[in-house]
Structures are given as structure tokens and as C-alpha cells.
Amino acid sequence: MLPEKNFHNADNGVNISGIDFILVLPSNSHNYRQEWVYSDIESEFGMARAEYDVTDDSWTLYSAVGGQHSH
């Protein structure tokens, strides 16, 4: 399953690639986005791993499974 991203009425991030000078930082008590702007981001991740070793007198088997779901 692919991660789900929904951005309503806004960009995800700010592009400053064309600026060739250092900006004065705004106060962190002010949000520069509009009040109605929000993001819905959801991701899922899964992984499985296995390993085995076989010799003449013994054998070993390792395995692992993991996953993550975040909002």
C-alpha cells in the first residue's frame, strides 16, 4: 500500500531556491499559513527478513518481521 498524503489549499513546504540573501527570521509566535490550511499524512511500512546458515554438523535459522502505521 502506498503512503497517503492529502494537502488541502497549501503547499507542503516553502521554496526558497531563488533567494540569494539571508532573510530576517519571523517571530515563532506567528503562523504564516492561513487558519483553514491543514495536512492529512498517513504512512504504512512493512519488512520481513530471513537468514540461514547450514554447515556439515549444524544449522541456524534467523527471522524477523516488523511494521509501522503512522498518522
Name some characteristics of this structure.
mainly beta; 3-stranded antiparallel β-sheet; 3 strands
Describe this structure in words.
This protein is an all-beta fold and 71 residues long. It has a domain at 43-71. Helices cover 0% and strands 48% of the residues. It has a 3-stranded antiparallel sheet with strand order 1-2-3, with no helix packed on it. A hairpin with a 4-residue loop joins strand 2 and strand 3 (59-70). The model has no long low-confidence stretch (mean pLDDT 78).
Could you outline the blueprint of secondary structure elements for this entry?
Blueprint: E1 4-8, E2 38-54, E3 59-70
Antiparallel strand pairs: 1-2, 2-3
Give a quick precis of the structure.
The protein is an all-beta fold and about 70 residues long. The chain is built from no helices and three strands.
Biggest sheet statistics: 3 strands, antiparallel
> What is the rounded Rg?
24 Å
Tally the beta strands: 3
The portion of residues forming beta strands comes to over 45%
Q: Uncertain segments of ≥5 residues (pLDDT<50)?
A: none
Helix content: under 10%
Q: How far apart are the termini?
A: 14 Å
